[in-house]
Each structure stands twice: as C-alpha cells, then as structure tokens.
Amino acid sequence: MLSGGKVGLRARHEDDVPILHTELHDDVTTHARANGRPWRPVARDAKDPPFSVKEEDERFVPFSVVDLAGGTLLGSAVLWDIDTHNRSAHIGLGLRPSARGKGYGADVVAVLCHYGFVVRGLHRLQIETLSDNIAMLRSAERNGFVREGVLRSSGWVMGEFMDEVLLGLLAQDWKPDARD
Ligand SMILES: CC(C)(COP(=O)(O)OP(=O)(O)OC[C@H]1O[C@@H](n2cnc3c(N)ncnc32)[C@H](O)[C@@H]1OP(=O)(O)O)[C@@H](O)C(=O)NCCC(=O)NCCS
User: Fold this and answer.
1) What does the alpha-carbon distance between residue 35 and residue 46 come to, in Å, rounded to a whole number?
2) Number of domains into which the chain is organized
3) Could you say which of 101, 114, 137, 143 has the lowest number of CB atoms within 10 Å?
4) How far apart are CA 151 and CA 61, in angstroms?
5) Quick check: is 180 in a domain?
6) What is the mean pLDDT of the chain?
7) Name one GO molecular function term (predicted).
8) Per-residue pLDDT tens over the stretch 67-93
C-alpha cells in the first residue's frame, strides 16, 4: 500500500466494487462531471462493471483509496493513459460523498504523484477537470500542478457544454511535501 498523510492507496478489493458502483457510478451527475464518457446504466452483475479490475492493462493502474487510520474505503484513484515513451500519465480520482470536503483530495493527488514520479519514473502528470470543480482544482494546485490552458466547451455535461481546465506537473517541479 502507498501511504500519504491521511490516506492509503491499495489494490481494489472485490468488496469495494459494489460500494464504488453505487456511490460513484450510479450517481449520474457525479459520473457526468467526472468522466468524459456518457453515463449508461450497468447492472451489478455485468461482465465488466466499472471499478472492477480487468485484466492487467499496462496503461491503467487503479487504486482504492482508504482511510489510513481505520481502513475505511474512501474512493477510487487512478493513473491512466500511462505513456512510457513520453513518460507521462493522467490522474483521476473520485471520493465517496461522505469522504468529500474533508481535505482527502489533495492527499490522494500527493500519493498519485509519488506513484507516478517515484515508483514509475514518469516525467509529466496531467489532470483535466471542469472549470467549476474548485475542490479538484485546489487539490491539484496544492500539489504544484499549474493551469496550462482551458479547453473551451470541451465537456458535454448534463445538457450543456462546459469548459475544462488542463493542469500539468513536471517531475522537476514536484515538491513531495509541498501541499501549500
Ligand atoms: C474533487 C474531489 C476529489 C476533491 O477532494 P475533496 O477532499 O472533496 O476536496 P476538499 O473539499 O477538501 O477541497 C479541496 C480544497 O478546495 C476548497 N474548495 C472546495 N470547494 C470550494 C468552493 N466551492 N470554493 C472555494 N474553495 C473550495 C476547499 O476549501 C479545499 O481548500 P484547502 O485545500 O485550501 O483546504 C472530491 O470532492 C470528489 O471526489 N468529487 C467528486 C468526483 C470528482 O469531481 N472527481 C474529480 C474529477 S476530475
């Protein structure tokens, strides 16, 4: 397990899947805001439900986020589109509703940075988020991510186009204990 100040990032357990499915996938608005793909209903016993770990994919590393103190499941985190030639990857995370607003987000981003830069030797990490997702923007910026641009009207979200902000962090600029 990888540890931050308050959270741990561990492998996805089978018991995590129905909880993440109900609280993150089945919440259509959260899904629409956090995921670039269209929402559709998926049965719990579907062949490849969201959040289940599929066969190993070199470009996609999923984690479950847990509370370090008690081990409670807090959400999901992922390094995706890992590109070993350009040594870059994207970060994604989603916390359970009960875990939001408590400062876990920045800690999860910090642990994903440690995984990307230290464990995987990547050079660049990237985040795209809706321009009104202040909690995500702040969680990224506290770890040193900088806004590199706005992707105008790039996300179709529940009936309207929204801007996304592109944030990046280079290994050389990363300060492991910053989180200011
Ligand atoms: C986005 C997410 C990961 C952020 O994690 P979090 O732990 O809930 O973040 P917090 O509520 O602690 O907020 C982080 C910071 O943003 C600030 N913030 C949050 N909402 C704010 C608002 N509306 N206005 C001003 N500041 C705000 C908080 O005060 C906090 O500031 P601090 O770091 O200076 O203390 C989490 O809310 C989540 O999973 N949301 C649903 C899924 C999602 O949007 N995923 C991201 C997709 S790209």
Assistant:
1) 19
2) 1
3) 101
4) 25
5) no
6) 95
7) protein-N-terminal-alanine acetyltransferase activity
8) 999 999 999 999 999 999 999 999 999
Where does the pLDDT of residue 56 fall: very low under 50, low under 70, confident under 90, or very high at 90 and above? confident
Rounded to the nearest angstrom, the gap between the alpha carbon of residue 143 and the centroid of all alpha carbons in its chain is 14
Burial class (CB in 10 A: 0-12, 13-18, 19+), 24: buried
- Report CA torsion sign: 122, 66, 127, 62: positive
pLDDT at 112: 98
Give the structural domain span for 49: 2-124
- For residue 180, pLDDT beyond 60: no
Q: How many residues are recorded in the chain?
A: 180
Domain at 100, CATH number: 3.40.630.30
**CB-ligand 1 contact for 131 (6 Å cutoff):** no
* pLDDT, mean of residues 114-125: 98
| Assigned domain for 23 exists | yes
CA of 135 to the centre of ligand 1 (A): 2
CB atoms within 10 A of CB 20: 23
CB of 90 shorter than 6 A to ligand 1: no
Q: Which of 67, 111, 138 to mutate to test the pocket of ligand 1 (most atoms within 8 A of CB)?
A: 138
Residue 142 forms part of a structural domain = no
What is the Cα–Cα distance from 30 to 34, expressed in whole angstroms? 6
